[in-house]
Amino acid sequence: MRANEYYRASSLEDAYSKLQEDPKNVLLAGGLWIKKMGQSYNALIDLSTLGLNKISETKEEVIVGSMVTERDFENSPLIKSLYGDAISFATREVMGVNFRNLATIGGSIMGRYPFSDVITGLLPYDVTLHFYPEQEMKLEEFLLFRGKINAILVDIRIKKHVGKGFFKKVKTTALDFPIVNIAVSEVNDKYTIVVGARPMVAAIAHKASDYINSISSPSRDDFVKAAEIATEELQFLDNKDASKEYRIDLARVYIRRGLEEVSK
Amino acid sequence: MKVSFYLNDVLVNYDVNPNEYLSHTLRSHGVKSIKIGCNESTCGSCTLLVDDKPAMSCSILTAQIEGKHITTVEGIQEEAAKISYYFSEEGADQCGFCNVGYALVIYALKRELKNPTDEEINDYIVGNLCRCSGLQSQMNAIKRYLKED
Question: Is the confidence at residue B149, as pLDDT, over 80?
Fold first, then answer.
């Protein structure tokens, strides 16, 4: 990685105006992906002194600053208390502690990484991204958005509904990227099925979720059917880690198991 | 650019490039205990403590640690000697390249987790790879170290 300048932003406004100065200026969160990509930049814009590393709550939401590390996020009692610990669990699947002490929630989300455990783990829930300049986007809307986001992620807000969650990362070794990621939730009697690393970024299987939500007391056969619908509506592809067919087989099993688990 | 931070409680002021990583800065200032293994945020050999939390120094820009406290194995010599004793007793000490990173992560584990289960220990040390062994001997050594007051 090359950079000409390290710029400590003094405010969000300052960071934003620095970002506009040059298309080669970039926001620095944890810095792990920037290192891995090895590209050249003009200025790295440091956001670490803007107080974005805090987790707080209101009556309805947990508010997570974009510079909160993955480790502080997973250890937060507020995050652990959500959806049977499912969101914290998904984050704990990322690499080791010495990695997660550097990686940030903002960096994990803004990269829209296809392999992201954090994104897959959050997507079944009601999550809103708040940007500077003032702009809001649901997480799903952000993932489907195809342009460049010309704004700074300030925080993410997770609704505190009562519900259950399931997360499964299929990987060949402890520190590997996922072959496929599955997240399933049951919130207010509604199921949501998410599949990530297909190998594309996580997506909600709406048809499969609607199917299972249309049945009043779903049976195991209904869960099997929902898993089948999910793997038909979402696109799966081959890459060097696994074939399309293998990913589909894995996804069907873990979606069914996830639905069974959250329906208990 | 100038960066000031505390290295084992001593304030240092280094002149660094904006894209310079901490592992490089420290090694170029004589802290050769920092081992660079994969240099890809994976193996954990370069682990040190940033404000008492284990982190991979190959992946932190030196500019990012302005004002922070960095602990290397030189800063925990007494505890490192104990860990080293149990490593050799249990046969966990082979080529030794990963040991420094291990010592720091085990030291941090002991301070962060109270009475951890085997699974919690595994989760904590999974980011530190040992290519020589099967890791069982490390586990035995860690458990003996954790039992010490």
Answer: no
Q: Measured between CA atoms, how close is B28 to chain A, in angstroms? A: 19
By the CB < 8 Å criterion, does B129 face chain A? Answer: yes
Pair of tokens at residue A22 = 């040059």
Chain-chain contact of B56 with A102 (C-beta, under 8 angstroms):
yes
Task: Tell me the shortest Cα–Cα distance from A208 to chain B, in angstroms.
Answer: 34
Identify the CATH assignment for B76-147 out of 3.90.79.10, 1.10.150.120, 3.30.2310.20, 3.40.47.10: 1.10.150.120
pLDDT per position as a tens digit, A168-191: 999 999 899 999 999 999 999 999
Mean pLDDT of chain A: 97
- Among chain A residues, the shortest Cα distance to B21 is held by A35
Find, in chain B, the residue whose alpha carbon is nearest to that of A95: B127
CATH superfamily of B2-74: Beta-grasp domain (3.10.20.30)
H/E element, A153: strand A152-159
A70-115 pLDDT per residue, tens: 999 999 999 999 999 999 999 999 999 999 999 999 999 999 999 9
- Show residues of chain A in contact with B44, CB under 8 Å: 96, 98
Closest CB to A48: pick one of B64, B105, B128: B64
Q: Is B36 within 8 Å of chain A by CB?
A: no
Instruction: Indicate the CATH number of A164-263 among 3.40.120.10, 3.30.565.10, 3.30.390.50, 3.20.20.140.
Output: 3.30.390.50
CB contact under 8 Å between A8 and B41, yes or no, is no
Report the phi/psi class of residue A23: left, alpha or beta, with left for phi > 0 and alpha for psi in -120 to 50: alpha
Q: Which are the contacts of A177, defined by CB distance < 8 A and separation ≥ 6?
A: A115, A171, A197, A241
The ranges of chain A annotated as CATH 3.30.390.50 are 164-263
Q: How far apart are CA A235 and CA A244, in angstroms?
A: 9
User: Per the CB < 8 Å rule, is B54 touching A101?
Assistant: yes
Nearest CA distance, B1 vs chain A (angstrom): 8
Distances in whole angstroms, Cα of residue B90 to Cα of each of A5, A57, B84, B135, B140: 48, 47, 10, 11, 7
Query: pTM value?
Result: 0.96
pLDDT bin (cut points 50, 70, 90) of residue B102 is very high
